[in-house]
């Protein structure tokens, strides 16, 4: 108290004194005079009092704890950013939620660019389809936790729809065609999600989501398959199994055993509906010679074969389509295994040929056992369907894709590339 009283005299003189004006005149805020310190104690007291007043008027008192928690919750809901980052931005911006949101976006984009080199093996496949074609894209992230986030899923579906809308001359021809990622990333988007909205580019949207998630997010690849004419395009997107799927599957096969084949297929179709997001996708086109034939049976079998693709993992459509390198490699492996038995050369050759037939049944689509009825292979299934519709039916193209496949190999090749270049390769 004594210190404050000592400060009162010199402080008031500093605020009111002007040249040629006595202390008894009217109060003024024009602080233009130099304060007169009567002693060293007066000078010390002045500095203390001036410091207190400066801190009081230059800083803002932080809001109450309840208000702080409310602001943190609101900003977290808006951005989905980690709580520690949300709080740090609010503190930095004096608890101004709008300024903090802008600060988070700036911070996040810088962080997203730093994390762009990290391996991202998780993620989702997103499928979009219309009558003429289907598009599937793979959007990767680092953890399954982010893959389950609604913002990540919204972005994946949006990118698949965008890929479906991209017109490309090659896509007009029936078959499987890669999506040009560079051109796709430059396209404009109009996002309508509560947490990520407005006009932006595909690349900026990916960076924005990566900033929110705090992980490396990247658009890895995309493909489009066009429907044949005449014929059908069938797809199956494998998602995480739901509890009710086991019951539906059991009932459907019981109905099929009682002869209610179409009802059974209808139930299984409910289980195999394209929901847009999953981890494995199968796409397949069935071509028919007679364009006037009804397509209902083709659609039924096509849907079942799309499921078969996901389960059986074929590599080639026919025996003739097996590459010579793959066949020669497999033959050498089988020959080496047969020679270890110590049998004669003639017996070894027979063993190799027999095992090659088994190899074809494993990797060639039309030679594989049909997963929904293993008493016949896919070739027999197509033959029966051709008789049923009165016209030859064949598989035009097929395509299977799984999240993360080959990524570790890609990373290894990328790591070896500088060394290979240095070695002169």
TrEMBL record:
InterPro entries (UniProt xref): Transl_elong_EFTs/EF1B (IPR001816), Transl_elong_EFTs/EF1B_dimer (IPR014039), Transl_elong_Ts_CS (IPR018101)
Tree of life domain: Eukaryota
* Localization (cell): Mitochondrion
User: Pfam family example for this protein?
Assistant: EF_TS
What range(s) does the Translation elongation factor EFTs/EF1B dimerisation domain occupy? 134-405
- What is any one GO biological process for this UniProt entry? mitochondrial translational elongation
Could you give a GO molecular-function term held by this entry? translation elongation factor activity
- Give the GO cellular component terms, alphabetically: mitochondrion
Q: Does the keyword Nucleotide-binding apply?
A: no
Q: Which UniProt keywords apply?
A: Elongation factor, Mitochondrion, Protein biosynthesis, Transit peptide
Q: Give the family from UniProt.
A: Belongs to the EF-Ts family.
Biological function: Associates with the EF-Tu.GDP complex and induces the exchange of GDP to GTP. It remains bound to the aminoacyl-tRNA.EF-Tu.GTP complex up to the GTP hydrolysis stage on the ribosome.
List the protein's name.
Answer: Elongation factor Ts, mitochondrial
Taxonomic lineage of the native organism: Eukaryota, Viridiplantae, Streptophyta, Embryophyta, Tracheophyta
What is the gene called?
EFTS
């Amino acid at each position: 108290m004594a210190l404050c009283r000592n400060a009162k005299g010199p402080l008031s003189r500093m605020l009111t004194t002007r040249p040629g004006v006595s202390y008894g005149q009217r109060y003024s805020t024009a602080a233009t005079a130099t304060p007169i310190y009567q002693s060293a104690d007066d000078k010390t007291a002045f500095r203390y009092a001036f410091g207190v007043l400066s801190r009081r008027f230059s800083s803002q008192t932080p809001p109450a704890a309840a208000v702080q928690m409310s602001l943190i919750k609101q900003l977290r809901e808006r951005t989905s950013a980690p709580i520690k980052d949300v709080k740090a931005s609010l503190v930095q911006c004096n608890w101004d939620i709008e300024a903090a949101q802008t600060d988070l976006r700036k911070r996040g984009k810088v962080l997203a660019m730093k994390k762009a080199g990290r391996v991202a093996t998780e993620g989702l496949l997103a499928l979009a389809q219309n009558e003429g074609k289907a598009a599937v894209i793979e959007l990767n992230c680092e953890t399954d936790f982010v893959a389950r986030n609604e913002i990540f899923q919204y972005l994946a579906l949006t990118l698949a729809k965008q890929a479906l809308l991209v017109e490309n001359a090659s896509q007009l021809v029936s078959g499987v065609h890669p999506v040009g990622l560079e051109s796709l990333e430059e396209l404009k988007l109009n996002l309508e999600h509560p947490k990520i909205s407005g006009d932006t580019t595909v690349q900026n949207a990916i960076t924005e989501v990566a900033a929110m998630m705090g992980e490396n997010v990247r658009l890895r690849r995309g493909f489009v398959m066009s429907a044949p004419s005449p014929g059908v395009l069938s797809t199956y997107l494998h998602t995480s199994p739901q509890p009710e799927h086991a019951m539906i599957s059991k009932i459907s096969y019981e109905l099929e055993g009682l002869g209610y084949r179409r009802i059974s297929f209808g139930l299984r179709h409910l289980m195999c509906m394209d929901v847009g997001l999953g981890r494995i996708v199968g796409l397949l086109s069935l071509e028919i010679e007679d364009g006037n034939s009804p397509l209902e049976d083709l659609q039924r079998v096509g849907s079942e074969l799309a499921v078969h693709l996901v389960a059986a993992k074929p590599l080639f459509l026919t025996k003739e389509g097996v590459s010579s390198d793959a066949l020669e490699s497999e033959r050498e492996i089988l020959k080496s295994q047969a020679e270890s038995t110590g049998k004669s050369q003639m017996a070894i050759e027979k063993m190799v040929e027999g095992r090659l037939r088994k190899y074809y049944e494993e990797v060639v689509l039309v030679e594989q056992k049909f997963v929904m009825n293993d008493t016949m292979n896919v070739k027999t299934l197509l033959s029966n369907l051709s008789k049923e519709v009165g016209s030859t039916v064949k598989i035009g193209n097929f395509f299977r894709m799984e999240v993360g496949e080959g990524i570790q190999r890609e990373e290894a090749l990328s790591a070896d590339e500088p060394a290979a270049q240095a070695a002169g390769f």
